[in-house]
Amino acid sequence: MAQSNNIKKRMFEGEEPVRDQAGAENKDQEKIEVTFEFCDLNPIDYHAIKHLISQLFRIARPKSSTNLAPTSNPTPPSKAALKPVLEDLDVGELADLVLSDQKEWVGCTVKCDEEDPDPYAFISVLDLKAYQDKKSILTLTNYLTSALASSNPSPAQADELLKVLKESLQPEGSGIGLVLSERLINVPVYIMPQLFTQLGNEIKHAQSKNAPGFNFDRLLIPSRVFTLSPNQDSSQDVNPTFDSNTSTNNNVQKPKKNKTDANLNPDDPDQVGLYHPEDQIISQVELFIVPLISLERKALKKRDRRSYTLDY
Fold first, then answer.
1. Cα torsion for 19, 24, 25, 30, to the nearest 10°?
2. CB-based contacts of 88: which residues, under 8 Å, 6+ apart?
């Protein structure tokens, strides 16, 4: 990986609809062309990456405790308030690990131009076994093992994933790479397949050079999920999904609107759905997918509820 700051790894041109002051799409106006650049990880992105990590690992809270005063100007990630996360999870340390020496091998951010101070998305991977003495990694692994072990009745996939997780973290274990990836909601989804493809190529290159911190043969991917509140209609539109029949000029799938019930598992009593459409693609090739629903989240029966799952 190049060491220069803000190297243009890859560029995508997207279109964003022009919206009026009320936020509604104005079809009579021309669309705005937006060029997205894949840039090297840079220490100046610390606060933005810290915020995006807190967004990835956010836990459900009553709306009254998280509502902020409405604003017409979006807050950049580096200045936004951190999301509520697991107790004792040091998201600052996770951001430091992402920006450590391994950034010379893997990971990138997505920006609109070189002069843009804040990334709109990022991706990287951390070797859980190599960093298991770090407080943030220890908090995550302890939470995962306790959550998987406390399933009652315990799903077969949770049992198997718990076994693999424990064995992989042993000194003689094969190791697991924790993929950290998050984006702002207005970032076009069609850049995500290329982002994951690039990460995979960088991991292979780092392993071929025997770079430290890449001794793993499995990936653990935390993903945000959602459930429906009792008063919510499952037929409503949610995040766009991928349409395999259409493509952009960059040969990347364009997103299309999807219905909520299409993202839900009909066999799941908790009706857990994948929050990001890119996770739908990941779920097609994963070995395990285990929704981790906190007790606090289950108690929010009449509130909007979000948590995260683990794709493996």
1. -30
2. 135, 139
User: Per the structure block, which two tokens stand in for 34?
Assistant: 């937006």
| C-alpha torsion angle, residues 76, 81, 83, 85 (rounded to 10) | 130
Give the least confident one: 37-51, 76-90, 193-207, 210-224: 76-90
- Which residues contact residue 131 at a Cβ distance below 8 angstroms, ignoring those fewer than 6 apart? 97, 137, 213
For residue 240, pLDDT beyond 50: no
Q: 42 pLDDT exceeds 90?
A: yes
Establish if 5 belongs to a structural domain. no
Which range of residues forms the domain containing residue 289?
11-311
pLDDT of residue 196 exceeding 60, the answer is yes
DSSP string computed for 242-303: EEEEEE-TTS-EEEE--BGGGGB-TT-TT-EEESSTHHHHHTTT-S-EEEE--HHHHT-TTS
State which H helix or E strand residue 114 sits in.
none
Give the pLDDT confidence score for residue 297 in this predicted structure: 45
d(CA 255, CA 29): 21
- Report yes or no on 6 lying in a domain: no
Question: How far apart are alpha carbons 173 and 7 in whole angstroms?
Answer: 35
188 located within any domain: yes
Any domain includes 83 = yes
Task: Count the domains in the chain.
Answer: 1
Q: For residues 229 and 241, what is the distance between their CA atoms, to the nearest angstrom?
A: 21
Q: State both tokens at 41.
A: 């990880």
How far apart CA 189 and CA 200 sit, in angstroms, is 18
Q: What residue spans of the chain are helical by DSSP H? A: 46-56, 63-66, 91-98, 135-149, 156-168, 192-208, 278-282, 295-298
Distance CA 274, CA 139 (A): 24
